[in-house]
UniProtKB/TrEMBL annotation, chains A, B:
GO terms for biological process: glutathione metabolic process. InterPro entries: Glutathione-S-Trfase_C-like, Glutathione-S-Trfase_C_sf, GST_C, GST_superfamily, Thioredoxin-like_sf. This is Glutathione S-transferase. The keyword Chaperone does not apply. Residues 88-224 form the GST C-terminal domain. The lineage of its organism: Bacteria, Pseudomonadati, Pseudomonadota, Alphaproteobacteria, Hyphomicrobiales. It comes from Sinorhizobium fredii (strain NBRC 101917 / NGR234).
Length: 240, 240
């Protein structure tokens, strides 16, 4: 069965957390909106007046008859099917809890440049973005990074993974969080990374995995840009 | 087995979505932080340096050896155990996707009074809150309500439930969303509710269920207040 991933073309965004899992597993998938006519097909599906599972927003995954929305939900579904979830049922809920903390972190990163409204341009909310980003960098960023570091160092199976003794989709998502934060806030990350060595080591280990390495060098990997969640606006970062 | 729910005392907040499921099922549970010494016990658990599943924030649920964090994750876990999830596995992912859309909606409601930072008082971010709330009420509120209405009316099993043909935790959460929005934005809700009759009918049906009715009249049900997610600041609502 070919998995169909639906997400906005042109940005890594929230879709990237799903792509990384599909790529690491070597899964057969189509990134629908990046095919000719794909964005139209995605919008049609979202407006389908008959579909009981119509999603609120991308990303969503279609697997045969099933349509599954929200990153954490997609990964909870895909994890066991791709060999990227813990075997133990209890640990699967731990993984899902961690993924939902990542979801919250990503939403807060988005709001550093969009604190007033998603429908407005960044340029329409710059003074507010400046305040929100300052608050995020001084309080929330160290809190999230410290929490993820703690999860790794408290893992009874060792700090190489976030849940259990094997690679999971949570590890892949943490890699992407570090990548995105380094893109958006290079100075702030430089002054925080020393405090989170296990998280940095996990990032580097994921980046070196053969399938991820090959994916990162391919044109399937979209570069970060200023239409994405992680945006580089130097005025929102710490001074160099 | 007695479920232990950990959440801040004094507010319904995010804990309420879990409480409603436990109450509807007549489950045996303890609302830990509302017991003597309970908040201290909760904070101790959150700081536990040995726990691999240490949560980022309340609410979390303890079921024997398991600690499960995040509302949607707790409900995904509890749903089948309380008879409040669809039997069909595919529909369980639909339910989880809906619950995650509710999670996003609740986070946006929170940010109407806290657009700059959770660590600041509302009084420190009033001008920004005014802008964010105006954007929320004009664009996001109708979008969320319309989406939930659509989910109900497109349910092949009929509009009385959000997923499948039976009451689920998603229905209970939608009740709470309507309750909270009516508390926070009474004028805005008055001008929106006519467009979402199925959602209002679902709210009323949940409120009339015997165990919910009894719960709502008990002192276990905490009133909304201005320390909660749903806050009544008349200056953020539409004019009457």
């Amino acid at each position: 069965m070919v998995f169909k991933l639906y997400y906005w073309d042109g940005i890594p965004g929230r879709g990237e957390f799903v792509r990384l899992a599909l790529e690491e597993a070597g899964a057969d998938y189509v990134d629908v909106a990046r095919q000719p006519g794909g964005t139209g097909a995605m919008l049609t599906l979202m407006k389908d007046a008959r579909d009981a599972a119509a999603p609120f927003a991308p990303p969503f995954l279609v697997d045969g008859e099933r349509l599954i929305s929200h990153v954490a939900n997609i990964l909870f579904y895909l994890g066991p099917r791709l060999g990227l979830a813990p075997e133990d049922e209890g640990l699967r809920y731990v993984a899902n809890g961690l993924q939902l903390t990542i979801t919250d972190c990503v939403a807060e990163v988005h709001d550093t440049h969009h604190p007033i409204g998603v429908s407005l341009y960044y340029e329409e909310q710059k003074p507010e973005a400046s305040k929100r980003a300052a608050n995020f960098l001084s309080e929330r960023l160290p809190k999230y990074l410290g929490y993820f570091e703690r999860v790794l160092t408290q893992n009874p199976k060792g700090p190489a993974h976030s849940v259990g003794g094997q690679m999971s989709y949570v590890d892949l998502s943490l890699f992407q969080v570090v990548e995105g934060l380094r893109y958006a806030f290079p100075h702030a990350m430089r002054s925080n990374e020393e405090q989170v060595p296990a998280l940095v080591a996990l990032h580097d280990a994921v980046a070196a995995r053969p399938r991820i390495l090959s994916y990162l060098g391919s044109d399937r990997r979209l570069p970060f840009n200023e239409s994405c969640i992680f945006r580089r606006y130097p005025e929102l970062d710490l001074p160099s």
